[in-house]
Design a protein that fits this description.
The complex is a heterodimer of chains A (about 525) and B (about 150).
Chain A (H helix, E strand, L loop, with lengths): L6 E9 L16 H23 L6 E5 L1 H7 L2 H24 L4 H24 L4 H10 L3 E6 L13 H19 L5 E3 L9 H7 L4 E4 L1 H5 L13 E2 L5 E4 L2 H8 L18 H4 L2 H4 L31 H29 L5 E7 L10 H12 L6 E3 L2 H7 L30 H18 L5 H17 L2 H9 L3 H24 L4 H10 L13
Parallel strand pairs in A: 1-2, 1-8, 1-9, 2-3, 3-4, 4-5, 5-7
Antiparallel strand pairs in A: 6-7
Chain B lengths: L2 H4 L10 E8 L2 E7 L2 H13 L4 E10 L10 E7 L6 E4 L7 E10 L4 E6 L3 E2 L7 H4 L8 H7 L1
Classes of the chains: A alpha/beta (about 525), B alpha+beta (about 150).
Chain lengths: ~525, ~150
């Protein structure tokens, strides 16, 4: 007999990276973002799901995978480059095992990395045949995870609302990409940066999406006032449900001061042998440009707020992960015990995190996740795991409230993506949307070249809209790349548009941009009409 | 690589428009482009009426009580220097509807619009600005975790 718990937790992992693919170079530094995420986060998360499944653990996790990430994970060039990257990493780890022989503490870590990378290669290449999405699909098909989508290129919708078709195109392209890969429609969507503005839910409804997530204060400021706070989903006017991020469970992980990942026993992210070791030794394993970069091999623990860092001790780090998982689950149980006394419906705690946090920045994150899920099973009468999709299917008659404009960015609105560092992009993005809509409406029966041009214009527009570029410009790291990418997509779009209007399409530019920005193979420019 | 020259993008599109955007409940951002022909014609027309242009302004109006932005409750003017094409307006009220215009103010006090913006609504925030938004944890963390 199924035990009905007093409340639920919905763990949500959001996996996203911007589309970075540079076939015009033999290797490209920013492609490492994907390679590091696969090695450090995605494969370890797959391993967690596999172990839980093998042990017959009844778990539920919601995983959003952005369409740009989906396209990169299916791209042959990036996959072949990833394997090359991984082989280089295995070689480096092997050298490290030799180099550190006799230094017991460090050598055991070198051995750990060597084993880890070999295991990652086995899982990626052999077990899942270079198709990591098939792993996630497998877990979805057996009912353990619910995969949802995000906007096509992670466009930040609240600053796009000058042109409704641009928002519609971000959502429809996302839904189409999802359906191609997972063979069904997504139940939910991750609105990039939790960016919501009144009325977006109507667009989601148009494409069959049942729910999305919003930031805590956006829901708490909703209309009418949300009677269950953030512990129930609400139906917006469109009848699409919104789930609010729970502050307490977010703070436990995200807070710079109190968050688990800052514990002194965990691995220090900022001490990497790519920077620590002799340049001539490390040079073959860093970028072709010769710039020192993180390799992923790190031997120190956080230690404390000091320059000196002690050697990482795996055993004590795993003890910390156990402690933190216990602390997290006991906190959620306390919340549910309290809420169940005052609520006349089953409370749900929505806890979303970036998937790349787990294993990449927070090295022990996957272990924390696994321990947490296993511990949840021990308190099934109090806390159950659920996906938002399951919750809204199980509990009808949801209360009604539509959230206010909000995001999960700094100070809760649009400030991160609209400030002095990045505001120059919007006059171009809006103009591109305007021209795209006009062109989509103007070409009912295009020639083959016109159709290809219009479709590529749509890709260039969406790529320029990625929230990542504005975010990077704001944070001040990799700004040159973000600025270059934005300018590149604007320039290519305008060149293609100009050729289209003049009836003189530059085939060289069209072919080149199709080759380099090859995402959304089946896009139809009519989505902008 | 030189990001400024590798991909050329226009400084303007020859449009006559102003776009108003909401940054947060208390801050708006406006960018605009005034078509030179329209500007010259408008100023000629002002001169023909015997009036003298005093300064170029960004005028922000509270149009909360108006359905079509016609009945404007005047709020604030900002004098614009040559080449200024965008502006942040700080310390406005949350939960109000706003419209902006770029134009010139004559010595008589009359304002002539070159271009008028869309209407936007700032979200209502009942707390003060430091309490109202999200806390600083979890802000766009995915890229932070990758690019740090």
């Amino acid at each position: 007999m199924n035990i009905m718990p007093k409340g639920y937790i919905a763990l949500v992992l959001h996996a996203h990276l911007p589309f970075v693919r540079h076939p015009e170079y033999d290797s490209f530094l920013e492609e490492n973002w994907l390679f590091e995420a696969i090695t450090d986060a995605y494969i370890p998360i797959v391993n967690v799901f596999d172990r839980l499944t093998d042990d017959d653990v009844d778990f539920r996790v919601t995983l959003s995978i952005s369409p740009t990430l989906i396209c990169m994970l299916r791209d042959e060039l990036l996959i072949s480059r990833y394997i090359k990257h991984l082989d280089s990493l295995i070689k480096l780890a092997s050298l490290e095992v030799e180099r550190t022989a006799g230094v017991n503490d460090v050598n055991s870590l070198a051995v750990m990395y060597h084993k880890k990378y070999q295991q990652v290669r086995h899982v990626f290449c052999e077990k899942y045949e270079c198709d990591i999405l098939s792993a996630f699909k497998k877990f979805q098909d057996i009912g353990k995870i619910e995969i949802i989508t995000a906007c096509a290129t992670h466009g930040y919708l609240p600053l796009m609302d000058q042109h409704y078709p641009a928002i519609r195109a971000q959502v429809k392209t996302a839904v189409d990409t999802y359906e191609e890969v997972f063979g069904r429609l997504p139940k939910g969507i991750w609105l990039p940066e939790c960016g919501y503005h009144s009325g977006f839910d109507k667009t989601l409804k148009e494409f069959g999406i049942k729910y999305f997530f919003a930031e805590t204060h956006g829901v708490l400021s909703g209309t009418p006032s949300p009677e269950y706070g953030v512990y129930s989903p609400y139906l917006c006017a469109s009848e699409v449900a919104v789930f609010a991020r729970d502050i307490e469970s977010s703070k436990a992980v995200w807070s710079a001061q109190e968050g688990y990942p800052g514990d002194y026993r965990y691995r220090e992210y900022y001490r990497d042998i790519g920077f620590d070791l002799d340049y001539d030794y490390i040079k073959p394993f860093i970028n072709d440009c010769g710039k020192r970069v993180n390799t992923g091999i790190k031997y120190h623990k956080i230690t404390g707020k000091t320059e000196h860092k002690d050697i990482y001790k795996r055993k004590e780090a795993l003890e910390a992960a156990e402690e933190h998982a216990t602390h997290f689950i006991s906190g959620r149980i306390k919340q549910i015990e309290k809420l169940s006394l005052s609520m006349d419906r089953t409370p749900i705690i929505t806890a979303p995190y970036d998937a790349e946090l787990f294993g990449h920045w927070w090295f022990e994150g996957p272990e924390w996740l696994e321990i947490l899920i296993r511990k949840t099973q021990l308190s099934k009468d109090t806390i159950g795991m659920i996906t938002p999709g399951e919750y809204i299917e199980r509990y009808d008659h949801l209360p009604v409230s539509t959230p206010a404009m909000s995001s999960w960015g700094y100070r809760g609105y649009n400030e991160v993506w609209l400030d002095g560092s990045n505001d120059w992009i919007y006059r171009h993005l809006h103009k591109m949307s305007e021209l795209m809509i006009e062109a989509a409406r103007g070409y009912e029966n295009p020639t083959e070249y016109e159709r290809r041009t219009l479709n590529q214009m749509a890709r260039e527009l969406m790529l320029a809209q990625s929230s990542d570029w504005a975010f990077i410009m704001k944070t001040g790291t990799f700004t040159e790349y973000a600025s270059r990418r934005t300018r590149e997509h604007i320039s290519t779009f305008l060149t293609l548009h100009d050729g289209l209007c003049r009836g003189d399409i530059n085939m060289e530019i069209l072919k080149d941009s199709e080759d380099r920005h090859n995402l959304f193979e089946n896009i139809n420019y009519k989505v902008y009409a | 690589m030189n990001v400024n020259t590798e991909f050329s993008i226009p400084s303007g599109y020859g449009d006559n428009k102003i776009v108003l955007m909401v940054r947060d409940p208390w801050t708006l951002f406006a960018y605009w482009e005034v078509n030179k022909t329209i500007e010259v014609e408008a100023i000629d027309s002002i001169h023909r009426k015997g009036m003298v242009v005093s300064k170029t302004l960004l005028r922000l109006c509270d149009v909360t009580e108006s359905d079509f932005g016609e009945e404007k409750e005047f709020i604030r003017d900002f004098e614009l220097k040559t080449w200024t094409e965008d502006w942040y307006v700080h310390d406005i009220a949350s939960g109000r509807k706003w419209m902006a215009a770029v134009g010139v103010l004559c010595t008589t006090g009359e304002f002539f619009e070159f271009v008028r913006s869309n209407i936007v609504e700032t979200p209502l925030c009942v707390k003060n600005r430091f309490d109202c938004g999200s806390s600083s944890f979890g802000s766009a963390g995915y890229m932070s975790s990758i690019i740090k």
